[in-house]
Design a protein that fits this description.
heterodimer; A: 2 domains; 16 strands; 20% helix; B: 302 residues; TIM Barrel; 10 helices; 34% helix; 20% strand
Amino acid sequence: MAEMLLAELIKKEQLKPDIFKFSIKAPKIVEASKPGNFIEIRVTDQVEPFLRRPISIYNLNREEGILEFIFQVKGKGTKILSEKQEGEKIDIIGPLGYGTFNYENKENLAIIGGGIGVFPLYELAKCAKKENKKVNTYLGFRSQNFVVLEKEFEQVSDKLILTTDDGSYSQKGFAINYLEKDLEEGKIDSIYACGPLPMLKAVQKLAIEKQIPCQISLEEKMACGLGVCLGCAVKTAKSPKEAPEYWHVCKAGPVFNAKDVEI
Amino acid sequence: MNTQINFAGIKMKNPVTVASGTFGYGREFSQFFDLSKLGGIITKGTSLKPKSGNKPSRVCETASGMLNSIGLQNPGVEYFAENDLPFLRKQNTAIIVNACGSTIEEYVELCKILNTLDIDGVELNLSCPNVKAGCMAFGNTYEGVKTVTSSVRKVLDKPLIVKLTPNVTDIASIAKGVEDAGADGVSLINTLLGMKIDIYRKRPVLANNTGGLSGPAIKPVAVRMVYQVAQAVHIPILGMGGIVNGEDAIEFMLAGASAVSIGAGNFMNPYTSISTIVGIEDYMKKQGIEDIKEIIGKVEMN
């Protein structure tokens, strides 16, 4: 059950020149949210920009009813959002999405993220760790300048592998190569991924080959976020190319079983 | 103060409905407000057989609006009748089914089934710009509109509204085709055909290349067309195109609409339809209007 609310921005942090972390007071939404859910933000009370911005949830502070999200300034909507000041109200709808991360009956989790796709994985790692699951985290970034949340993920992971494509920080290469190694050693019983499409495709392929249950969090252009406009379509894995059928990221997702979707 | 409207034989407690394709079959919005507050709900475009829709990307934002090319994805009329209609019927508001097809035969078969269902009316979709066959192909000539509407009229006893495309030269003549075929009302406008190009990929943003433009960006075009149609026909008009508040709705009614629909405005804010109803009542109070019907078509031209 989603609700719309004007939530107070109680803390604003700039993590990078173009990446912001917002903490907002939204007790009911926090209570109803699960790892993997997202929110939709209307950045203005005017009609331009027209649509809400879907943004993943980074952290849920259930004691204080505080929801945290992190976003990159990419266009005019996120630019306006980044200019909000502490104390201002933010128009949000949430929690959205029915497909969320599920690690029930799993013990050895591999959490793999790339770039700004790492944000929705934090709440998952935090919850799993709290339930004494073994959390193996693999985060990939383009280069040193793009690395975010290293300390935060360290605290909620039993093991953290951080890679940069160019080797300018930590391990050189792709996060998936390290995941693959651990898979081969039989250390992993489930995979959870969010990141750029090439990374997700590689993780999906690997998981299917090794027959390891895998969930991936997807994004697609979206108008309503509620499941009515049917804009955010993603092809089902079972349907043939000539007669494609679709799930919707805001409804069946944003988290899908990797074997159910063709990306 | 009276906001009730009898639109084309459909009783509505106020003139505000929600437009096809922007409200699903109602369930998602019922988590935000009581649907009985609405004058009516026009369902997602529904066809005889299920349709899976177009390839993504299907939507993108544009200046004060958006483009969509969903391709009429819907579960088909049988699924609707079994799974969605029972829920909708309980909401104590008028239920109008938006009916789409790719051939005249399909429209007729669909409307035969709709005629047996417990619904208040049918909105015949002759205006979707995003499917290859049917719809807008029928909707852009007087003859095409008249032929499909007449065929449907023969099998449908319920109130029949025909939804028009704005992608025509002379909207008034098209509306005349609807009236001449014996329909009870006309609704307009559907989306305007548009395109957005990603200048870095040098390709259209939508997978279907073109899509339908909606939102406040199209409102002046819609108001003009509602006015033109109001001059040409005697059947009532359901006006829509970029309405996001009471003032917008009043503008359409002054131009000649007897009722209005909120479309893309539902995406911007799920409560847009409710605040539009409140806005209409505020206007009536301020202007000392007793009955909403008093303002229909009351614009005075310069």
